[in-house]
Design a protein that fits this description.
Number of strands of chain B: 14
Strand order of the largest sheet of chain B: 6-7-8-3-9-10
Helix content of chain C: 55-70%
Number of helices of chain B: 10
Helix content of chain B: 25-40%
Largest sheet of chain C: 2 strands, antiparallel
Chains: A mainly alpha, B alpha/beta, C mainly alpha
Number of helices of chain C: 12
Number of domains of chain C: 2
Shape of chain B: globular
Oligomer: heterotrimer
Strand order of the largest sheet of chain C: 1-2
Structural class of chain B: alpha/beta
Largest interface: A-C, 43 and 38 residues
Order of helices and strands of chain B: EEEHEEEHHHEHEHEEHEHEEHEH
Order of helices and strands of chain C: HHHHHHHHHHHHEE
CATH architecture of the largest domain in chain C: Alpha Horseshoe
Radius of gyration of chain B: 24 Å
Largest sheet of chain B: 6 strands, mixed
CATH class of the largest domain in chain B: Alpha Beta
Strand content of chain C: under 5%
Chain lengths: ~270, ~325, ~300
């Protein structure tokens, strides 16, 4: 267990030096610039737009980091043969994979936390400069703590995407891994269409296939509660709980698969 | 006493070719053992399968058949690697780290904690001769420096068994001398050293036993003294003399070769008595620069064995 | 899989145990999803907001995958339409249908089915659809702009004018224009003529629906069959109403109820429509109509030959 954390720490440090912190700076600047520009426009709608923009940016930046570091986590080391360094030490291949995963997930968590702080900073600012009348007009308070629910689910989604990228990284090239991971991310968000598909299609065979795919492929749409929290609609605790549980189980499946693949490899 | 390293029938086939993969046998039923405290030289031409053997022992590759054991444990046992060091051929490490950071990372993996990490890292860096460069990022290191870092990380845990894949590659003569002395020091401490090389002079100095691998097969193994016939093949004399003596030199020696600095190189037959020849030449006014016995070298042996193997194979192929 | 370090053999490890673990975890994840989905539907805000106001922006954003994105939005349009029809009447809202169809056809201007079905969806009267023949015509005209040689769109516009707007002159005009295209079928020109001469005629209606029923798309086929059955029922209704009229003329008064007519006109029992549901007699208007419980209800107009208004 300790070994896994040592490897995770190294992976974290590596991604920090990989210019990941710059994305956080870019995010913070983007948020502040956007809030200034938009506040010059009509009052009232700008809060919703800022909230949407912030959550979307967190999602996108996080996705970029998860995919582009995730795909290289293993394949880069194997290609450059730096993997020999660790695997000739008292380290099992399973520890290697888990350590890399934890390191990148930690990076994402730190990244997301900093972005959330900047996000709330901007929202506090908007709350401060708004007049009493404007504040009364907002359906949901600016610094609504329920936004954190969306952030938590974004983190869950990113953890799943990272596991997908890592799993592909254990056996395929970075380019192919990137395409497959992004492809699964896209299909993961259209997954809900698959579910509704079967309500409209007549042939039961097609409906069954659609349903099967809906359940087996990573289902990322339930992680997306941005619309709900921005409109102030309730998100039930059981939904959050079950979705995070799903994330945990699915990630476990992906990591076990990654370990199984990595364990069988020859390193020439 | 049980062997430090043993293999039994260790075989590795690779699939070569995409459309109709054919098996390529990189290692063919290798059976050898290395006793504790030995320095074992694993020799052979390029592509013989030496690196493959080392990787099989470190379980970076999985064998097609056969077994390998290190310190009595199967090669796949990750715990035994706590007592083992490994240096890969042309090693590559995380180049965004400094030498110190890399070694500290590996030291922590080995189980060092707290201030022990720094102490141990500093010791090992001193041992391999890396001074203030240790604070530089590895991407700034030359090949020779990287090789030293590789050695350093192999020695971090004070290993009982050390695997070195072409440890001298990329080193200048000073560096090679350094590594040679290091290995001799380890031998003195009782460490088992298994190293592969295609440079034979290293083996002559360092090894107690050698094994020769050609095209995946072990063609010979044993102590150097058994492999090489230490019988005398002749004598080499370098003399300086006046031109009038040149003509007579042929009577003493089998061959006479003038050297570029004016001296002459004489080859004497093994049964010629060097004392008598020296006495004769000195009486005639020549002066002796050097006198050396000529024995069969490892290189001679090598060429002979490799040539025989190749000959046997081509004969077999033609039949 | 060993997180612990000792006693691993030197042969390549078998993956069977791990593969079983992966399968088991996937099954568990499916279980969690099933339980969660019982309480969750994707959230559709009360005032639906489309992120893309312009189909052209979406087209550029698709980065070369326009027809794939068009397919996805087409599926969404179909699902949207279908699911709206399942919703309680008062909450039906088809406002997103036209924007969705616009996206689809902007992304893939040759998406034939989107134009034709889209037009059909748009024309269906509320509550079965938004009841917007004008949007349907606009959609089809965009189809013509992108595919000038496609006779089907001309035919479809003609149909909208004929069936939903009862503008037979315009319908005939469109049929005629379509008939002049190189690939047009032979029956289009006579259809134009018939429509002009006898607009609202059940014969030409039948012809139109028969043509549509020839398509190999199931949905269209069954709709056409349904319409043809309705037209047959309308014939039956006309005949039965003529029987009522004969009764009125002969007896000098309107029948009080239909059994009177059955008795006097010597009909064979209570008349049933082709789905087996009895026709109903409305004593107030003295007219017969298809029973409200019948699958054929309500009958479309025109109800009588030659009538140009319902």
């Amino acid at each position: 267990m300790r070994t896994i954390w040592i490897i995770a720490g190294a992976a974290f440090k590596e991604s920090v030096r990989d210019r990941v912190p710059y994305t956080m700076v870019v995010f913070a600047v983007l948020m502040m610039a956007a809030s200034y520009l938009i506040s010059e426009l009509t009052a009232g709608q700008d809060l919703k737009i800022i909230k949407d923009l912030g959550l979307a940016a967190m999602s996108v930046f996080g996705l970029v980091i998860a995919v582009f570091i995730g795909i290289g986590l293993v394949s880069k080391e194997v290609e450059r043969k730096s993997v020999f360094g660790l695997l000739t030490k008292p380290v099992t291949r399973a520890q290697f994979i888990l350590g890399k995963y934890l390191g990148l997930v930690t990076t994402l968590a730190v990244n997301l936390s900093v972005m959330t702080v900047a996000y709330y900073g901007v929202l506090f600012y908007m709350n401060g400069v708004a007049t009493e009348a404007m504040r009364a007009g907002w359906p949901v308070p600016a610094t609504d703590p329920r936004l954190l629910v969306a952030v938590v689910l974004i983190m869950g989604e990113l953890a799943v995407v990272t596991a997908i990228a890592l799993m592909f990284s254990t056996f395929s090239s970075p380019l192919l891994s990137a395409m497959l991971t992004l492809g699964l991310w896209v299909s993961g968000h259209f997954n809900s269409d698959l579910r509704q598909f079967e309500q409209v299609v007549d042939q039961p065979a097609v409906a069954w296939i659609a349903r099967g795919l809906y359940y087996v492929l990573p289902n990322l749409a339930p992680f997306n509660v941005k619309a709900e929290v921005v409109y102030g609609m309730p998100v039930s605790a059981s939904h959050v709980g079950f979705t995070l549980l799903y994330a945990l189980i699915y990630i476990a499946a992906l990591l076990v698969a990654a370990v199984a693949i990595f364990r069988r490899r020859d390193f020439k | 006493m049980s062997a430090a390293i043993e293999t039994e029938g260790l075989t590795k086939d690779f699939s070569v070719g995409f459309w109709r993969p054919r098996p390529y046998r990189a290692l063919d039923h290798l059976t050898l053992d290395v006793a504790a405290g030995e320095v074992f030289g694993f020799l052979g031409p390029n592509g013989a399968g030496k690196s493959t053997t080392l990787k099989l022992l470190m379980q970076l590759l999985y064998p097609t058949s056969g077994e390998a054991r290190i310190l009595g444990r199967p090669a796949g046992d990750a715990a035994v690697r706590q007592r083992v060091g490994f240096l890969a051929e042309n090693p590559y490490y995380y180049d965004h780290l400094t030498a110190e950071e890399l070694l500290a990372y590996f030291a922590r993996v080995f189980g060092f904690r707290g201030t022990d990490v720094g102490t141990r890292v500093a010791r090992v860096l001193d041992e391999v001769g890396i001074g203030k460069e240790r604070r530089l990022r590895l991407r700034r290191f030359s090949k020779g420096m990287t090789q030293r870092v590789g050695l350093a990380q192999a020695l971090l845990n004070n290993p009982e068994v050390l695997f070195l894949d072409e440890p001298m590659s990329g080193l200048d003569p000073l560096g090679r001398r350094h590594v040679r002395d290091l290995i001799l020091g380890l031998r003195a401490k009782g460490c088992t050293v298994f190293f592969s090389s295609h440079i034979l002079s290293d083996a002559e100095t360092l090894c107690s036993r050698v094994g020769v691998l050609v095209q995946g097969k072990l063609v010979a193994s044993g102590p150097l003294s058994e492999i090489l016939a230490f019988e005398l093949k002749g004598w080499e004399l370098v003399v300086g003399c006046g031109p009038q003596l040149h003509a007579e030199l042929a009577t003493f020696a089998r061959t006479v070769t003038p050297l570029s600095d004016g001296h002459v190189l004489l080859h004497l037959a093994p049964d010629a008595e060097p004392d008598r020849v020296v006495g004769e030449l000195t009486r005639r006014g020549a002066h002796i620069v050097s006198i050396n016995p000529v024995r069969e070298t490892l290189e001679d042996y090598f060429v002979q064995v490799v040539g025989a193997t190749a000959g046997r194979d081509t004969r077999g192929a033609g039949a | 899989m060993s997180l612990s370090l000792s006693s691993a053999p030197s042969q390549r490890p078998s993956s069977r145990g791990l593969a079983i673990a992966v399968a088991g975890l996937l099954v568990a994840s499916i279980g969690v999803q099933v339980v969660r989905d019982r309480g969750w539907q994707p959230y559709v805000p009360a005032t639906p907001v489309l992120w893309f106001q312009s189909g052209n922006f979406l087209k550029r954003a698709s980065l070369g995958f326009e027809s794939l994105v068009a397919d996805v939005y087409w599926i969404r349009a179909v699902v949207y339409y279908g699911s709206m029809r399942r919703v309680v009447d008062s909450q039906r809202d088809f406002t997103l249908l036209d924007p969705l169809l616009t996206f689809v056809t902007t992304l893939d201007p040759k998406f034939r089915v989107a134009y034709r079905f889209g037009a059909i969806f748009l024309t269906e009267a509320y509550p079965d659809g938004p009841g917007r023949p004008d949007l349907a015509i606009a959609l089809l005209q965009r189809g013509i702009a992108a595919n000038p040689a496609a006779w089907e769109y001309f035919h479809d516009i003609g149909f909208v004018y004929y069936w939903w707007l009862q503008d037979y002159k315009a319908a005939a005009g469109w049929f005629a224009k379509g008939a002049q295209l190189p690939d047009a079928p032979e029956w289009l020109q006579p259809l134009a003529a018939t429509t002009l001469a006898q607009g609202g005629d059940r014969q030409s209606s039948r012809q139109l629906w028969r043509q549509l029923g020839d398509s190999d798309i199931e949905w269209l086929k069954s709709t056409a069959k349904h319409r043809l059955t309705q037209l047959d029922a309308m014939d039956m209704v006309d005949e039965l109403n003529r029987a009522v009229q004969r009764f009125t003329l002969r007896e000098g008064r309107a029948p009080r109820d239909f059994p009177e007519v059955i008795a006097r006109e010597r009909l064979r029992g209570w008349p049933l429509d082709s789905t087996g549901v009895p026709f109903e007699y409305d004593a107030a208007t003295n007219r017969l109509d298809v029973g409200p419980k019948s699958a054929l209800w309500p009958l479309p107009w025109p109800r009588e030959p030659g009538r140009t208004t319902p």
